[in-house]
Amino acid sequence: MARIYNFSAGPSTLPLPVLEQVQADIVDYKGAGLSLIEASHRGPHYSEVHEAAGAALRKLLGLPDNYHVMWLQGGATLQFAMIPMNLLQGGKQADYTNTGSWAKKAIADAKIFGDINVVWDGKDENFATLPAAADVDARADAVYLHLTSNETIGGVQWQEWPDVPVPIVCDMSSDFLSRKLPLEKFGLIYAGAQKNLGPAGMAVVIIRDDLLEQCPDDLPAYLAYKTHAPKDSLYNTPPVFPIWVSRLVLDYLNENGGLDWVAGLAEERSGLVYGMIEKHGGFYRCPVAAHCRSKMNVVWRLPTEELEQQFIAEAKAAGMDGLKGHRSVGGCRASIYNAMPVEGAKALADFMDEFARKHS
Ligand code: PMP
After folding, report:
1. What is the pLDDT of residues 51-68, one digit of tens each?
2. How far away, in angstroms, is 360 Cα from ligand 1 center?
3. Distance between the two ends of the chain, CA-based, in angstroms?
4. Which residues, 6 or more positions from 155, have their beta carbon under 8 angstroms from its beta carbon?
5. Which CATH number fits domain 17-255: 3.10.180.10, 3.40.640.10, 3.10.20.520, 3.30.565.10?
6. Where are the domains of the chain?
7. Statement: the pTM of the whole predicted model exceeds 0.70
8. Is 120 helix (H, G, I), strand (E, B) or coil?
9. How many A from CA of 173 to the centre of ligand 1?
10. How far is CA 124 from the centre of its chain?
């Protein structure tokens, strides 16, 4: 078996030991005579997995008891709407930062439900930078301040968190579980699973009690946090396969050193790629301001689009796929999530070095 280095932005690479465990258990789940994805979501086999997934996530994040964990379908995209639908009914206020493609979508949905104020907008700077955390404020009567911790397409990532008088609601889809968090600042954290957590088909939503209490009861059942949180995400059939794999990923992270471990690896991997961009500064160019360069999604340009195409094609032939930038912005992008081996980043950096030497 030859596995490539997969730099895809999501779905993306998963830890090999996790895939191997799934492979071993997929047909006959631990001697049960059936697959876990054939088993009742209320039966003993799945119940154990469901409980363990929640416990492992709580342990990894150090999540206090006043936060609920929900595993929901509809991806992070549904949360763009579900958050304001649950927290802003009746035209309540919320503040948003417009930091790129994903924040923009969150803002558009929020405007359907609430009075939305954009407190910082990166549009005029082509979304290539973020404000200093200390320069971000929120209205004291806003229900929350919304941030996108890491813009997967633009490659900007908050390195520090604003001090604001309201809870932060954060889309962490593309850097969830990549570093420790000052949890007390966050009222709600959400993330699509398919980057650092597991397979596509699920979002994890973590909500603090005081925000949950503010949610209305009269929403369509699936769209109400008050449906899912008290029922531990078992109101209806949960996304059993993504939850199963996520449990294995979470166990793997907990067993190997937790968030400090992955944060160190992210530093190392991203350092290798940014280092190579700097080394060949006349050839490669990272458009993102140095203080907010993402440790998960590194974006860069080459002198021409032809060279970019050639770079991507040759990298692919060398066993490194998924390096094409998002279709909306072009260029190159390496998504180097938790499960990307450091050797993968090293292989990419070596390839970049050689390519630049040949073509500069
Ligand atoms: N937010 C961010 C930061 C993302 O990267 C993505 C997906 N790439 C989404 C939201 C949307 O997630 P989903 O596809 O799970 O709806």
Report:
1. 999 999 999 999 999 999
2. 36
3. 35
4. 286, 287, 288, 293, 294, 297, 298, 299, 333
5. 3.40.640.10
6. 17-255, 258-359
7. yes
8. strand
9. 6
10. 25
pLDDT tens digits for 128-166?
A: 999 999 999 999 999 999 999 999 999 999 999 999 999
Do residues 37 and 243 make contact, with C-beta atoms less than 8 angstroms apart?
no
**52 CB-contact burial (10 Å; exposed 0-12 / middle 13-18 / buried 19+):** middle
One-letter amino acid for residue 243 of the chain: I
Lookup result for tokens 């911790």: 149
CATH for 258-359 is 3.90.1150.10
98: phi then psi, degrees, rounded to nearest 5: -100, 95
C-alpha of residue 9 to centroid of ligand 1, in Å? 10
Coil/strand/helix, residue 189: strand
Name the residues annotated as catalytic: 102, 171, 195
- 38-to-28, 157, 235 alpha-carbon distances in Å: 10, 39, 19
Which ranges constitute the DSSP H helices of the chain? Answer: 16-25, 44-61, 75-87, 101-113, 209-214, 225-228, 240-256, 258-279, 305-317, 342-359
Q: Which whole number is the average pLDDT over 200-207?
A: 98
Question: Among the atoms of ligand 1, which is closest to the Cα of residue 153?
Answer: 5
Which residue in 173, 176, 338 sits closest to 253, CA to CA?
338
